[in-house]
Amino acid sequence: MYTLPQDLKTQLRKFRLSTSRESEPRALLLQISKSLTFESEGTYTDLSELAEDLPSNAPRFICVSYPMMKQGRQSVPYVLVSYMPVTCTGEQRMVYAGARELVRAEAGTGGKVIDVEDADE
């Protein structure tokens, strides 16, 4: 049903590999129009700024790397956040639900998907 453009796959891979040694959180914001695209050129380093930029009535996928210390070693989990506000339309919900598994697989987050309905979460 959906395919990811090669440049998007390349950018997702680059993001995943470049954030593995970061000490601050990083995030990419993705949207679907007729195809899946990045909403912004750069990465977010401030998650509160990311929350402010999320639309209140349109879903988004967000790739997040979040550094943390586990038993004295740095770990950088990489997760996909599925942001779907309650105010988005049924059509938008269906489009994003249909693309969710493809984005999860291509982003390389394993099974890690977090569902969020409110930007303040």
UniProtKB/TrEMBL annotation:
Q: Name one GO biological process term.
A: actin filament debranching
Q: Which Gene3D superfamilies match?
A: Severin (3.40.20.10)
Recorded GO terms, molecular function? actin binding; Arp2/3 complex binding
Kindly list the residue ranges recorded as spanning the membrane. none
Q: Which InterPro entries does the entry mention?
A: ADF-H, ADF-H/Gelsolin-like_dom_sf, GMF
Tell me which family the UniProt entry assigns to this protein.
Belongs to the actin-binding proteins ADF family. GMF subfamily.
Q: What is this protein called?
A: Actin depolymerizing protein
